[in-house]
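Cross-posted from the bioinformatics board.
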Amino acid sequence: MKTFDFLFGDDAAMWWAPVAAGLGIAVQCALLSVLTVLKRLSFVGQGVSHAAFGGVGLAVVLGFGAVDSLEGGQGAVGAAGYLLIVGGFCVTTAMLIAWLSDRRGVSADTAIGILLVAAMALGALLLHLHRLHAPPGVRTPNVEEVLFGSLTVVGWADAAAAWGCAAAVGLVLWGTRRGLLFWAFDESAAEAAGVPTRRVRLVLMTLLALVIVVSMRLAGVVLATALLVLPGAAALRLSHRLARVMMLSVVVSVLGVAMGLVASFEWNLPPGPCIVTVLAGLFLVTMGAGRGGK
Amino acid sequence: MPAILIDNLSFAYPGGEPVLQGVSLAVEQGEMLAIVGPNGGGKTTLLRIILGLLGGYSGRVEVCGLPPREAQRRGLVGYVAQRQSAELAFPISARQAVAMGAWRMLSAWRREPREVHTLAAECLERVGATAFADEPVGRLSGGQLQRVVIARALASRPKILALDEPLTGVDAPGQKQFARLIRTLHRDLGLTILMVSHDLRAVATGVGGGGTGAGCDRVACLRRTLHFHAAPHGITPQVLAEVFQHDLADMFDLPDVHVHAHSAEECRRDGNGAKSEK
Amino acid sequence: MRRSRVPSWRRASAIAAAGVLAAAGACDREAATASGGPGAGHKEAAPDRQSDERLRIVVTVPPLLWAVRELAPDAEIELILKPGASEHGFDLTPSQVQGIARADLVVMVGMQLEPVVDAALRARASAKRRVLRFESVVEAPLSYGAEEHAGHDHDHGHDHGHDHDHDHDHDHDHDHGHEHGELDPHAWLDPTQMKRFIVALDRELAGLGGGGTEAEDSVSDRARALMAECDRIDAVYRERLAKAASRRIVTHHNAWQYLARRYGLEVAAVIQPIESLEPTPADIQSAVDAIRAEGVKAVFIEPQFSSRAAERVAEAAGVQVLTLDPLGDGDWPGLMESNLEQLVKGLTQP
């Protein structure tokens, strides 16, 4: 099998990095996927990931645009700066979406539509300005580079970042689960019971933004969105118990990434689309089985 | 010390009309009070103030002798919201939903202690929900879900139980069952109970003694100002008929419910708004 | 508060809007002008140019700028391709099209490198405007397909699923349409070719009255100085590369054939295909295999492109990553010198 040639051949070390990174992204997205689907945040995830384009424009202009990789170029400081700026931008966008739809009577999808295109336009403008005025030797990334990534060319530093993020997400979710679950289940009752709902929502949005930024960097926006929606949706069809649903979400996500990567190795295909296809297929399978029709 | 003390409370949302004006009332410990009035009359606002969810009011509000926020922080007020607010697709059982009510007692990092399990089971028992305790919330009927929500409110061991429109969309047998439950809780736990409704008929059928009602001790009629806050008094059937345009014999099968009107004109003026709109 | 379920058509239209905007951002038509470009504030050109009016020259790519600036220091020069952008598939802004229309002289490469400029020239014909193409002086032009493409185990037609025309985002990091038989325009990286170009430019400028001599067989002093510079660079290249232990290089894209030919280097592989947005594992693996098989010591990336894939490949193959710049920022001698340093480093290091 060609997969074995890749993973156990001469360049095994190189090929295990995308696998590790892919699994790290799978886990971090799967953990949030259940909540994303239950709280109808799927579209918010989509909106935020496109809005991240604006954040990247900002990062580039501010000098943290080491889009090439997390390890090449500027190293840890640059990566941290990039993450902070883009992540902060994403969180702000998510909060703006919430604010617009809560307070201003704008419906959520309208708010998303507005902010998504505004942020993308901002990103395009900032990149354009950077292209015009950048100091020599500093390259301006282009649109596709920012929105699309590829698992095939991630390195071990990227994989470490993915797993670090997954661990952080897991930790924060575990630590805030009491209030978070109550809020997610029944927002007004939670508020009345004293759950700090604003803070809880901010935490969730921050986690979502972080996961989107990291996943987008490494695997592109399409794959990031797919991993945020499909595993949770599939898992919810398979079980009624929360602990099991969370676990199944991770299982589905990991399975999707693993099978997608294998397909990519075997049939010489780009890994991102393979993974998304497998995930979609897994979801269809769960539609047949499981709870059915709820 | 009264369970709830409200003295000359006035409140307006920023940039809006006053919603509450000069409201003063005291709810004694262990009392069951129905708060009725028309939609938009300030009932929910009053409830939110008591729950500590709204600030910026003038006047004095004390819950068990504490400011409302502090009382909420200590879990002294259990809240039963309208049923529609829950996300029923959530993959949790009734038992887990009830345990959420005790969230304050749960540490962030460790697993749930035994006591919480026991507490949840006990609350479920009280509301008669043990039979379906492990069903997913999405599979519960309306009446079952309401009981679970009440159990959840009880899980924080409150002194006061506040229910907001508890009988919305509940059919007549359901209303009787609910009334029975409330009465039982009132008696067994000695809770102070507030029931808010825009529908006097719904609340009224649960009012009074005699076995079929919940046994509200008093009824407050609220429409921006407190128009009625009556201890059991005689009520003139004509007044109610004018105010609420209901058939009294139909509505009250309990002879000793008393809603005392300040004046006939006020009844007429306020009662029109309090008519059931279901 | 309960969010309503988002209807799928709204979702679709918002995504479409995003896609349109992404395409618009990608299709950004700005190829940037150098500072001082005359495009915007252009006066209507008089049919007969006064002798004291400045020459208007439009230059397409940075390497050509040096000679033009040196030989016509008083001219108004507009550079179309901003340093940092790739020379393949760039586009023109309306003001640049105007600049071309009103120019006295357009200095370009030709050989199908600048189809948009050709189109602009055709669209606005001008009697007084002259065009100097580098291709007219190139001796023994090379075509693509002379070297092996690494990273592909299938035939040409770099189909990455992202189809672009040439009039698309100019700094795309992939390159396409290099069919077998198509000419390679990067001749300016060979100093002997640059020398010929200088002569032609000198003659052209003389004809326009911008300096230089009219005489057929002699060149202006300035041109002579530039040609001497070319000779000097040529000599340095020959000397230092002769000592190189290895003669094979792996480059980013097909920009180095002329240079390789002149100095006896061999472009062993080109990794540019794997710079596509989603290379397959086999693409990457065959690039690594090719590097190993060829025994090269360095992978040369280019500053106009993302280096992610190249770094990964170099890391796996255990070779170093160096930079070769085919365009520079207008200082051609400086460009040639820094490229030489990198080449020496990549070819002589153990």
